[in-house]
Design brief:
Layout: H1 9-21, H2 30-33, H3 38-50, E1 54-58, H4 61-71, E2 79-83, H5 89-96, E3 100-104, H6 114-120, E4 125-128, H7 140-150, E5 155-157, E6 165-166, E7 169-170, E8 177-181, E9 194-198, H8 201-210, H9 239-249, H10 252-271, E10 278-279, E11 292-296, H11 300-312, H12 332-335, H13 364-371, E12 373-377, H14 385-397
Parallel strand pairs: 2-3, 2-4, 5-8
Antiparallel strand pairs: 1-9, 6-7, 8-9, 10-11, 11-12
Helix pairs in contact: 1-9, 3-9, 4-5, 4-8, 10-14, 11-14
The structure holds pyridoxal-5'-phosphate.
Length: 400
């Protein structure tokens, strides 16, 4: 997930272009900006890149989820289904909307299991957020099919898979609305930032107004005279981020993705010669962004031994099973219902009754899958790392 690796002259040029006009804000200052709208331009090319009708840039991937849920009208008491392997932001945004996160198991795609999704739908389910984890596709067609059957909208959390496709169609365009992150470690980065895409004009307008204090963005009056259809908040992206996004997006298909794919293929080739190693299920290898290489050992014990040997050889893997930011069983603040708010909202009601609670071990299939999974992060440039990783794999193979 390394857009920062290729920050260079293009990004500098874009940033200086903004600074030279001294207009850092995406709205207003029409005279001073001399027709230059970096955020607006970034939205336009991002929508084109994904093949979506509308794109709305926001301040982060978390903001993108929060605004998408607001646009869909998600309210306190609604249930929103997501998966037990994702970054905390996915369910934080659900709780922030007052809604109740419900977690599904993952399957060997490491994304939402469509069969478990079907079991978790109730009459209170108002949205489903599958997450295209670690650069690759969820079984999104099966997921949208289940969602359609029950008349529930799908929000695709594509924060980790910008540039990913399934049979040529961009991830984020399968559901009602798709969200992206451009934070410090993402495939393309604007420092902090996010994007929402949708084909639904009405939904786009709601999100656009909500993310900017309700401004109706009437081009015929000044900003101060604009009207409001409803209350909102501020989740705006600024011009410097839009400028960075333009430079980064221009490198996605021609530098970032091909380099990552080549690096990933080299490591995968070596790993595939180890009999006991199997690989994450990727529904469409062609559309994989290749930001991570994830493989399975036959047991937790073997995964730990393999990783120990990799670590001793100077190329330790990411072991998501122990990661405290991405895996349900390790989210102790969620499991213990810790909140900074009065009366422990959103976990309790003012009367002290439980609104929602979560217990460790509730997702045994997810645990079984993650306990056997090891992950090698892939970069754009790996000339120095590659020999070290390949050598570590060689050594680790001997402990199996
Ligand atoms: C799956 C997922 N969703 C949402 C986010 C939130 O993005 P941001 O850090 O831009 O708020 C992240 C960030 O890591 C993520 O991985």
């Amino acid at each position: 997930m390394p857009g920062f690796e290729i920050i260079g002259e293009e990004e500098k040029k874009e940033l200086l272009d903004v600074l030279s006009r001294k207009v850092l804000f995406r709205y207003e200052f029409d005279k001073e900006r001399k027709g230059v709208y970096k955020v607006g331009e970034f939205e336009k090319v991002f929508a084109q890149y994904c093949g979506a009708n509308h794109a709305l840039a926001v301040s982060s991937g978390t903001a993108a989820l929060r605004v998408a849920l607001a646009g869909l009208g998600i309210a306190p008491g609604d249930e929103v289904i997501t998966q037990g392997f994702t970054f905390v932001a996915t369910w934080e945004s659900i709780l922030d909307a007052g809604a109740i996160p419900v977690f599904t198991e993952i399957d060997e795609t490491l994304c939402m299991d469509p069969e478990d999704l079907e079991k978790k739908i109730t009459p209170r389910t108002r949205a489903i957020i599958p997450v295209h984890m670690c650069g690759s596709q969820a079984r999104i067609k099966e997921i949208t099919k289940v969602a359609e059957k029950h008349g529930v909208p799908v929000v695709e959390d594509t924060a980790q898979s910008c540039g990913g496709r399934l049979n040529g169609k961009s991830l984020g365009t399968f559901g009602k609305i798709g969200t992206f992150s451009f934070d410090s470690v993402k495939t393309i980065t604007t420092g902090e930032g996010g994007m929402i895409i949708t084909d639904d004009r009405e939904l786009y307008v709601k999100c656009s107004e909500y993310h900017d204090h309700g401004h109706d963005h009437n081009p015929n009056v000044g900003r101060g005279l604009e009207k409001r259809n409803f209350i909102g908040l501020n989740y705006r992206m600024m011009e410097l981020q839009g400028a960075l996004g333009l430079a980064q997006l221009s490198k996605l298909d021609n530098v970032i993705l091909p380099n990552q794919k080549q690096n990933k293929a080299q490591i995968k080739d070596r790993l595939s010669r180890i009999e006991q190693v199997t690989f994450r299920n990727i529904p469409d290898e062609e559309g994989d962004t290749a930001t991570f290489l994830i493989f399975f050992l036959p047991s937790e014990e073997k995964a730990r031994a393999f990783n120990q040997a990799m670590t001793e050889a100077g190329a330790g893997c990411v072991y998501w099973y122990e990661n405290t930011w991405h895996y349900y069983d390790r989210w102790e603040h969620l499991l213990e219902g810790k909140s900074v708010l009065r009366y422990s909202y959103p976990f309790k009601t003012e009367e002290g009754n439980v609104r929602c609670s979560y217990s460790k071990g509730a997702l045994p299939r997810t645990a079984a899958i993650l306990s056997r999974a090891l992950c090698i992060p892939i970069n754009i440039y790996m000339e120095e790392q590659l020999p070290k990783i390949l050598n570590a794999v060689e050594k680790a193979a001997r402990v199996l």
